[in-house]
Amino acid sequence: MRNVDFSPLYRSTVGFDRLFSLLDSMGQPEQAPAYPPYNIERTGENSYRISMAVAGFSENELSIEAHANVLTVKGEKAEDENEGDREYLYRGIAKRAFERRFQLADHMEVRGASLKNGLLHVELLRNIPEAMKPRRIAIESRAGSEPKTIAADLQKTEQATAA
């Protein structure tokens, strides 16, 4: 594998720290645990859902926290009083604690969470501030004709390039 040194670029850039840290981490093996499994779904134009398989956990044993663009889901099983009375011949159901972190994009809000049939659903909404949304800018004409308008609509531009 070929290693690329980005250190000369670090000196001349401002505000691209996150981009470079992502590039640096691409060459490293993924260290995230595979438990519990999860899906990330797009449910609308600006809405998303994270679904995690947390069978055997109740609402009291799960916690969800969002802080600084990081969503953290933790699960800890409560101790069972009858655990000492049982002898397992085979134990295949995981009963371990977990902590899963998701890096959220800018302007993402956690709208709610629900637990149904062993699946934890976390609803997310991408809420872009008005100041950052595309807007139309009128162009004034000096020749006395009607003003022209430039569309700064990103979706139309993307559709035109895709076609």
From TrEMBL:
SUPFAM superfamilies, sorted: HSP20-like chaperones
Chain segments carrying region Disordered: 140-163
A Pfam match: HSP20
Keyword set includes Aminoacyl-tRNA synthetase: no
Keyword list, A-Z: Stress response
InterPro entries (alphabetical): A-crystallin/Hsp20_dom (IPR002068), ACD_IbpA/B (IPR037913), HSP20-like_chaperone (IPR008978)
Domain SHSP positions: 29-142
Family in the record: Belongs to the small heat shock protein (HSP20) family.
Designated name of the protein: Molecular chaperone
Native organism: Martelella endophytica
